[in-house]
Amino acid sequence: MRLNGKVAIITGAARGIGKATAEKFLKEGASVVICDISQEQVDATVNELKAISENIAGIKVDVTNRAEVDEMVRFTLEKFGRIDCLVNNAGITADNTLLKMTEEEWDRVININLKGVFNCGQAVAKVMVDQGSGVILNATSVVGLYGNYGQTNYAATKWGVIGMTKTWAKELGKKGIRVNAVAPGFILTPMTEKMPEKVLEMMKDKAPLKRLGMPEDIANAYAFLASDEASFITGAVLSVDGGIVL
Q1: Which residues contact 229 (CB under 8 A, 6 or more apart)?
Q2: Does 8 count as an annotated binding residue?
Q3: Which GO terms describe its biological process (predicted)?
Q4: CA–CA separation, 189 vs 193, rounded Å?
Q5: How far apart are CA 37 and CA 173, in angstroms?
Q6: 83, 127 in Cβ contact below 8 A?
Q7: 7-238: which CATH topology?
Q8: Residue 72: enclosing H or E segment and its boundaries?
Q9: Which of 124, 149, 152, 219 has its CA 20 to 30 A from that of 1?
Q10: What is the DSSP pairing of strand 56-60 with strand 31-36?
Q11: Does residue 158 have a known ligand-binding role?
């Protein structure tokens, strides 16, 4: 098992890509801390995934709240003694065109998708520096690379995440910490279910592989990047998009 003995924190892990990543990491031998905004959903996911491994715990975390992020780190260290991997997966959308986007829609997406990644990354990096090792994996998007109609706020955050990823890779490499990002294409998750069916069909037709991605496709990428198989990879942005941007 490629993650045997490693301890991972996964944000936004109660459903979708985060949940699939938690499941994959558990199957690969990791101990996992499930983090999400809803205590009810955290508890339900932990109880479900205990069927795979007992090396799982959960905590309610609002990634925009630094006190809760710090408590997440303390909880993980108390439970498992170290932190080998952080998957910064938590994120939201609040779509609108530039001329119609409200300040609240802008601020909410910026706070969760950008400030939340910063909060978790900074808090966990301090632990990893003391350990002399660790992996931080950030969720960006093909939208962050190429933009998308009606997603000014989301595109800005996901481009910002790429900037943070490359900066952290330069800063933390000498401390034994690797930092990479994964850029999913259109994945079948509760987030994309909000999109009109005709848009999803258009995206499916546009992709050379003629399908939308599944959460497991992204989880597999995270598992590889978290493992020692990727020990010479840092500062990279791995697109997992079915070729939709070709």
Answers
A1: 2
A2: no
A3: fatty acid biosynthetic process
A4: 6
A5: 31
A6: yes
A7: Rossmann fold (3.40.50)
A8: helix 66-80
A9: 124
A10: parallel
A11: yes
The answer to whether 83 and 9 are in contact (CB under 8 A) is yes
| Chain CA centroid to CA 76, Å | 17
Amino acid 207 reads: A
Token pair for residue 123?
């808090």
Q: Which residues are catalytic?
A: 154
Question: Taking the domains of the chain in order of start, what are their residue ranges?
Answer: 7-238
Q: pLDDT tens, 75-86?
A: 999 999 999 999
What are residue 85's DSSP bridge partners?
8, 135
Closest CA to 244 of 191, 196, 199: 199
Which residues of the chain have a pLDDT value below 50?
Answer: none
| Helix residue ranges per DSSP H, 132-192 | 142-146, 152-172
pTM of model > 0.90: yes
Would you report the helix, strand and coil content of the chain in percent, each value rounded to 5?
50, 15, 35
**Which residues lie closer than 8 Å to 120 by C-beta, 6 or more apart?**
9, 11, 63, 69, 72, 86, 88, 90
Q: Are 171 and 126 in contact (CB under 8 A)?
A: no
